[in-house]
Amino acid sequence: MGLMSVARPLEQVRARQKSVTRRLGWRHVRVGEQIMLCEKAVGLQRGEDAERIVAVEVVSLRQEPVSAITADDVIAERFPCLNRQEFVAFFCATHRGVLPDTEVTRIHWRYLDDQPPSHAKRIE
């Protein structure tokens, strides 16, 4: 299971509210893959462990320019106080060298603890 840092917005991930993210790269991820969301997963020092938050499963992904974000995706990204243009400006400002037409990987996931495992028996 791969690790993914989710520093922004961390509290919405902990509350299981965020369901979409945009990433530079991440072309290796596949639908059905499980990823452990962590507070910090890169830049760890030797012996330092990532603070694991929750496991998710990728349900869809696609490559698209940052500027292709929809109003619904701004909400799914958990930035409801921003409109599309504000989100694009924020994303570009927080990712060095990114412009509105820069292609990113849009990843949509589901939280694995939201549903019982498929092998679980239902008790009636």
Tell me about this structure.
By secondary structure, the protein is an alpha+beta fold. It is 18% helix and 29% strand. The protein contains three helices and five strands, in the order βαβββααβ. The protein has helices spanning 10-14, 71-76, 84-94; strands at 2-5, 20-23, 34-38, 52-65, 103-111. Strands 1-3-4-5-2 form a five-stranded mixed β-sheet, with no helix packed on it. Mean pLDDT is 86; it is low at 116-124.
> Roughly how many Å is the radius of gyration?
16 Å
Distance between the termini: 33 Å
- As laid out across the biggest beta sheet, the strand order is 1-3-4-5-2
Largest sheet: 5 strands, mixed
* Number of helices, where a helix is a run of at least 4 consecutive DSSP H or I residues: 3
Secondary-structure element order, as H and E? EHEEEHHE
Fraction in beta strands: 25-35%
Q: What spatial form do the alpha-carbon principal axes imply?
A: globular
Secondary-structure topology with pairs:
Blueprint: E1 2-5, H1 10-14, E2 20-23, E3 34-38, E4 52-65, H2 71-76, H3 84-94, E5 103-111
Parallel strand pairs: 1-3
Antiparallel strand pairs: 2-5, 3-4, 4-5
In short:
This protein is of the alpha+beta class and 124 residues long. It is built from three helices and five strands.
Q: What attributes characterize this protein structure?
A:
124 residues, alpha+beta, 5-stranded mixed beta sheet, 3 helices, 18% helix, disordered C terminus
